[in-house]
Design goal:
Elements (H helix, E strand, L loop, with lengths): L2 H10 L4 E8 L7 H19 L3 E8 L38 H7 L3 H16 L4 E4 H6 L4 H9 L1 H12 L11 E2 L9 E7 L2 E6 L4 E5 L5 E2 L2 H12 L3 E5 H4 L4 H11 L6 E5 L2 E3 L3 E2 L10 H7 L2 H9 L7 E3 L3 H15 L2 H6 L5 H17 L14 H10 L3 H10 L8 H15 L17 H5 L3 H16 L4 H13 L5 H12 L8 H6 L3 H16 L1
Parallel strand pairs: 1-2, 1-9, 2-3, 9-10, 11-13
Antiparallel strand pairs: 4-8, 5-6, 6-7, 11-12
This protein binds one RNA strand of 77 nucleotides through strand 1, helix 2, helix 8, strand 9 and helix 9.
Amino acid sequence: MHWTDVTAQSLSHKGKKHIVSTGITPSGEFHIGHLREILTGDMIARAAQDAGLDVEFVFIIDSADPLRKVYDFLGPEYEQFVGNQLGAIPAPNEDGNPDWERFEKEGWTYANHFLEPFLKALNEIGVKPRLIDNLESYRNGRFAELSKIACDRAEDIRECIERISSRELPDDWFPWSPLNSKKGLDKVKVTGYEYPLVHWKDEYGETGSSDISKGEGKLPWRIDWPAKWGWIGVTCEAFGKDHGAAGGSYSTGREIVQLLGHEPPQPLVYEWISLKGQGAMSSSAGNTIGPIEALELVPPEILRLLIAKSKPNKAIEFDTGMGLVTLADEYERLAARDFDKELANEELSRRQRVQIEDAAGALRMASTVAGEKAQATAVTFRHLALLAQTKKNDEDVWSSLQSSGAIGTVTPELQDRLNRMRHWIHSRHFPAEMKIHILEQPNLEMLRLFDEDEKKILTNMTAAIEACDWDAQSIGASIPQAARDLDLSPRSAFKVAYAALMGAEKGPRLAPILAEMEKQEILALLRACLTSITE
RNA sequence: GGGCCUGUAGCUCAGUCAGGUAGAGCGUCGGACUUUUAAUCCGAUGGUCGCGGGUUCGAACCCCGUCAGGCCCGCCA
């Protein structure tokens, strides 16, 4: 059974109605690590739906969280906002400084700024959650009731956090962070509590009262999270391993939510995604790849497959080079399989059966539209990479594929795939080994290994190329002919051609590539090869 | 210090919850086909299941210990 179905099954034992939740703090540029959070939740929800449950998927935007520091991508003017809530401060403009105009005219906030492109990507990936803005929820009083319980039972909650996380809370700790005189959550101490007011004093010497029913502040994270489970009614949540460790916020949360009068959701801890060879993703280290950037390279279903095929507790290394080719080709292979037929085989061992089911599940989750069966495009990533490099315009790519019978009509999916492919080829991610490269100098090492027959072929071929018209068809005919004239197999002629022109054992179809190049250059290379072997 | 996750074929991983002959894909090698789309098809290759003990008729799986890597215990998914 696929991991999403295992989770769905376990949810079904608990009841019919479920809310699967995810949440992210919009503190900076989103990256594909965040995509795992969202997609893990989305896929569980889909599996639960498939299992006949009544399920809703929500995405909580943690806009009530404060700005922690002036990040590298922010200008110095943000110093004044450290400690202020992300949903209540202006977004950065191109220079990284606050865009006051949009903030005042449209209410365009820091949180909006980073969230918008991510939501766009989500839409393309086929994720359509119900959005819950955390700051707005506080302001609308959604947290009021549970915040009251938390404040009333401050000592129980303190005990819970101290016991489970084995850390000592300061004497003046209180389960409510009021906004200070500068609308910040830092540098403020709670001095008293009479519902609904939490009295405070800040480091600027100001005092005031925060109404917990109006969102004039927020619950600290370890209480904020369980309170959300409570008022939203979350029954399942996927979260990163940082929250999942013993003593972490889930283990305190599951007890605190019960103090607040609700049941904890079913947890699912997932591992992180790293960029191959670069360690964990971190915006400050600059080794991130955003969902938008990833979507420019691969279609959304392949991005979904990346998450779907790995169980959540497995770390994923996202490889934007050759790994992408393997991943994309794996998708094509999966899409071409007939799982029902495979599973009908009575002789399968339990293991084989499980593997087929997992593959089928991964493909089902990869589709951007729930329930829609994936279509194989019959064109592998490799193949398309090749064609996209050798054919300058799209028409030629399609006619090549059509003449070989690989495709019929050009579907929007194919066009879309080709557009992304061209993007990838021109990006910094495109791997060197996929690049088509015609030598400039003979590869002496390979030429030295030529036997007598091969030398003769090379002589013939040079002459044939020189004589032929410079178009793909003529070139394509002259190469094998060079061997035929000697009663040798066409195969050996191609072997010679690859060695001489590309310094390789084998390679892509040569003729169309050569036709794109200058005849004189190719001839010069062949002649140089000839000279080297006759010495 | 306390805890969590991971360790299985060259690579990526299933299989561990319910113990019953070690399994996929990729790669590699071989063959077939071919005026060769790094293609496709067929076949083969490949593992002291990190290590040591225990329980059991039987352990990759359960228990104890141990090593290695990653992570958490001050809101980084």
